[in-house]
Design brief:
The complex is a heterodimer of chains A (about 260) and B (about 290). Chain A is α/β, with parallel strands linked by helices and about 260 residues long. Helix content of chain A is about 25%, strand content about 25%. Chain A has six helices and ten strands, in the order E-E-E-H-E-E-E-H-H-H-H-E-H-E-E-E. In chain A, the strands form two sheets. Chain A has a six-stranded mixed beta sheet, sandwiched between helices. In chain A, helix 4 packs across helix 5 and helix 5 packs parallel to helix 6. Chain B is mainly α and about 290 residues long. In chain B, about 50% of the residues are buried. The chains are: A alpha/beta (about 260), B mainly alpha (about 290). Chains A and B meet through helix 2 and helix 5 of A and helix 1, helix 7, helix 8 and helix 11 of B.
Chain lengths: ~260, ~290
């Protein structure tokens, strides 16, 4: 059974269609990257899967249930592009991550020992346990991003959906991010992530889907690394995959340009 | 204090303390959402409710709760739509509210200016025992809702999209917050008046967050400041014969200034104490 099954999806805003006839199936345990240029519709695709953008045509199933009737949102962990704009009211890292427990606990039950333990476990996975009582506003951009993945992990989801998780994130945080995602995938979790470039996440990716002008333009093995990740001294750790085999170098589609 | 030998002063004090506690407990969510001025707008709308109550010879508090709740839910629906015209729609609603209120109060039998002023700037010492029951029951209900649902309300105010993906009843929670805002505005109308209602929701939060690190501690400290300002406001205003609402707000603003200055001094002292230590490594490591 597919964890995410999108069939002939079309999405539009204000009369302008952004996605046309997109079909995508993500089986359980797979790590899928959605790549594409800015404005290609890749973020719209995952936002529609999550129910944040209405479906114009087509169908979406989550864990075998039509998305409209899907209620088991605790199985889905969402990592947005960035922390909501700072409001001035301080919040600690622990308080933000604790929001990740609500889907599992419901709004009527007060937080208990299991919730606090899950928050601490999630923060230690991303290497931020020592910052649990610090205001999130004092963290760097990369650390804030790690806080958001900890929030998603705290709910112990089966599917992680990430929107450009490493955009503008420093290298140390990217590595911590990749390690946390690797551990999640190694535990049998399914990951669907949108990225502009893969960076240190590349070794985790089983399949890449390239969205171009609202359609799926390419689907297959992730594009070959470029930049310093292609350097011979770069150690690609892939915690759960089969040993890498030699492949013919494909064009680096994570840098595909928006060109007709 | 001899003044508190009078029943009306005791009632005034209890009413003020309930509002002082409840208003910041709600206000923290409004501040977090950058809707600090929404209480002010709903206060404008509530005046129409007061006018309706006076015109129909009903309790102005009840009609103000109903009209401002309808207004608050309307504002919430406009906000959810996210239309760019939302800002203008809010302005129309607010000015319609206050103009409607002034006209309706004028049409009622009891149309003196003093009557209008009593709702605009508060008239705590005219609080009747029945009023006090309404204020206490509604105030405790607000307090209970805002503290019991704190994790969920925090999640919605902090990141609404994440809350939706978590399957939280975001729309219901938003409506709950809108109705609670309307209720708080209306019960606070007796203490500080409709024009100063928003101050009691926002100023204690602004004061608390100068020195706090987390959401829960901000909420707790804001409630303490609200309680202190409201209690001291009643006592001081009785002593020096000023308007209790305005006195309370001035005291809360005084707390804001004092805490800001004090917090700044503590931070500066702490920085100086840490100065000789080693330099923290930068968060961003550039790799060549």
């Amino acid at each position: 059974m597919s964890v995410v099954d999108v069939r002939h999806l079309a999405v539009g805003y204000d009369g302008r269609e952004i996605l046309h006839d997109v079909s995508l199936a993500v089986p359980g345990g797979e790590v899928v990257a959605i790549l594409g240029a800015n404005g290609s519709g890749k973020s719209t695709l995952i936002r529609t899967i999550l129910g944040l953008v209405p479906v114009a045509r087509g169908e979406i199933d989550l864990f075998g249930t039509p998305q409209r009737r899907f209620r088991d949102w605790a199985r889905v962990g969402y990592v947005p592009q960035r922390l909501g704009a700072g409001s001035g009211v301080p919040a600690t890292v622990g308080e933000v991550v604790a929001s990740g427990r609500l889907a599992r606990r419901g709004i009527f039950r007060p937080p208990g020992a299991a919730d606090r333990a899950a928050v601490r476990a999630a923060l230690s996975k991303v290497g931020l346990l020592d910052r649990i009582d610090d205001p999130v506003a004092t963290l760097s951009g990369g650390q804030q991003q790690r806080t958001l993945i900890a929030r998603a992990l705290a709910g112990r989801p089966d599917l992680l959906v990430l929107d450009e998780p490493t955009a503008g994130v420093d290298a140390a945080s990217q590595e911590a991010f990749a390690a946390a995602l690797g551990e999640f995938a190694a535990g049998g979790g399914t990951i669907l992530l949108v990225a502009h470039e893969l960076g240190p996440l590349r070794p985790l990716i089983d399949r890449a889907v390239v969205v171009h002008e609202g359609r799926i333009a390419h689907e297959g093995v992730p594009p070959e690394p470029a930049g310093h990740h292609a350097a011979p001294d770069h150690d690609h750790v892939h915690p759960h995959a089969t040993p890498e085999t030699d492949k013919i170098c494909v064009s680096p589609t994570d840098r595909i340009t928006a060109r007709p | 204090m001899s003044l508190f030998e009078y029943d009306f002063m005791i009632r005034a004090l209890i009413g003020a303390l309930v509002i002082g506690l409840a208003a910041p407990a709600l206000g923290i969510y409004l501040v977090q959402r950058r809707l600090s001025l929404i209480g002010d707008g709903i206060g404008h709308v509530a005046l129409t409710g007061v006018g309706v109550g006076l015109l129909l010879h009903h309790s102005p508090v009840i009609s103000a709760v109903i009209v401002s709740a309808v207004g608050a839910v309307g504002i919430e629906l406009i906000r959810q739509r996210g239309r760019t015209s939302g800002d203008l729609a809010l302005a129309l609603l607010f000015y319609g509210g206050i103009a409607g209120g002034v006209v309706l109060v004028g049409l009622s039998d009891d149309s003196s200016n003093a009557n209008l002023m009593q709702y605009l700037f508060g008239s705590l010492i005219t609080t009747s025992p029945q009023d006090l029951v309404v204020i206490t029951v509604l105030g405790l209900a607000v307090l209970l809702a805002m503290t019991a649902f704190r994790p969920a309300l925090f999640a919605v105010c902090n990141d609404e999209e994440y809350a939706r993906v978590s399957g939280l009843p975001v729309r219901t929670l938003n409506i709950l917050m809108a109705v609670t805002t309307a209720v708080t505005v209306t019960i606070a109308m007796r203490t500080v008046g409709l024009l100063l209602v928003s101050a009691l929701m926002v100023v204690p939060v602004a004061a608390a967050q100068q020195v706090t690190r987390g959401f829960r501690s901000t909420m707790a400290l804001a409630m303490v400041i609200g309680l202190g300002a409201a209690g001291a406001g009643v006592a001081v205003s009785a002593e020096i014969d000023t308007a209790p609402g305005a006195t309370t707000v001035i005291l809360a603003l005084g707390a804001f200034v004092a805490i800001s200055l004090g917090g700044g001094l503590v931070r500066a002292a702490r920085k100086r104490a840490h100065q000789p230590g080693e330099v923290e490594p930068p968060d961003v490591v550039l790799q060549g």
